[in-house]
Design the sequence.
């Protein structure tokens, strides 16, 4: 969507579509929000507290939807990092979900224009209900989050909106899908679940990386090759790359918890991208998923009573999982 976004009159290109020195400068300036040390020291307590609240609500009720719990978890953590903390989290999650689900992804020109118009209305709704309250709050008092950083850089409201859409979609919507997918695998395979619960956190994250390698949330990446007057666009098949036996060994299309990977740091393959545009929130997504699923899977009597419906997002060639119903033993009164 870079070619579409770049036609919009913005003072600054969003970091997702920047290249070269400016991109490196912005990534370096925001790295402190996503570094492993910061994630562990700054956000772990919030991850644990949010997990405790979600699991306690589930146990008290006796049933819940895994995808709803995953979204609540992802929204809480990403909102804290970005600074979208001055509006209703549940409403913000719905607004972001509608934006992502409604992005134009092909079809006739009329269909594309209608989808784009709907997207503009939804973006304005997100701006007024979620972004502007956060901006007003941080104009009065800066905090240690992305929106405060952007204000310090002189970003206007519209440019901040674009960045919030980028971080929001990446940090909330995709993490919800992965938590649901990983939970589904762990609930249906006793061997995976036993290894997951029996290991320490690095071992749990390694299991999640292997699931993500096989089940990437974003299945297609788009890149342009700079230099030409009309730079060519290439498409990278993430699933194809993640199934390369030269890197991942024999049987690359199965989950293997003892897999030996030939490339350093390639546990999840290209599921988080690579190069200068590799996902900055990879550590956040993995750690919050590990903490949440570890606690959830220890709930007495936990059962997946309804498998999720599987949909498809053609824009990112990714799965959409909905209505995965869980039940558990309700504690005695």
Sequence:
């Amino acid at each position: 969507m870079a070619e579409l976004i770049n036609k919009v009159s913005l003072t600054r290109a969003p970091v997702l579509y920047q290249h070269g020195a400016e991109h490196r400068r912005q990534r370096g300036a925001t790295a402190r929000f996503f570094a492993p040390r910061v994630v562990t020291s700054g956000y772990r307590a919030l991850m644990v507290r949010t997990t405790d609240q979600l699991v306690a609500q589930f146990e008290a009720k006796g049933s819940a939807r895994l995808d709803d719990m995953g979204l609540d978890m992802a929204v809480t953590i990403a909102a804290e990092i970005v600074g979208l903390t001055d509006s209703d989290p549940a409403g913000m999650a719905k607004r972001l979900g509608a934006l992502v689900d409604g992005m134009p992804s092909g079809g006739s020109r009329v269909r594309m224009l209608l989808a784009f118009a709907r997207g503009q209305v939804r973006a304005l709704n997100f701006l007024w209900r979620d972004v502007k309250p956060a901006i007003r709050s941080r104009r009065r008092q800066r905090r240690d989050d992305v929106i405060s950083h952007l204000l310090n850089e002189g970003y206007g409201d519209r440019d901040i909106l674009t960045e919030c859409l980028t971080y929001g979609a990446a940090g909330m919507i995709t993490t919800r899908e992965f938590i649901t997918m990983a939970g589904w695998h762990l609930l249906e395979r006793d061997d995976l679940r036993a290894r997951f619960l029996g290991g320490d956190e690095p071992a749990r994250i390694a299991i999640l990386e292997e699931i993500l390698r096989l089940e990437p949330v974003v299945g297609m990446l788009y890149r342009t090759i700079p230099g030409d007057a009309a730079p060519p666009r290439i498409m990278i098949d993430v699933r194809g790359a993640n199934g390369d036996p030269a890197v991942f060994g024999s049987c690359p299309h199965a989950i293997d918890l003892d897999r030996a990977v030939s490339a350093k740091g390639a546990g999840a393959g290209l599921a988080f991208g690579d190069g200068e545009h590799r996902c900055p929130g990879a550590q956040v997504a993995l750690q919050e998923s590990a903490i949440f699923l570890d606690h959830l899977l220890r709930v007495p009597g936990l059962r997946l009573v309804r498998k999720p419906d599987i949909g498809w997002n053609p824009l990112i060639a990714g799965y959409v999982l909905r209505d995965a119903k869980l039940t558990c033993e309700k504690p005695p009164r």
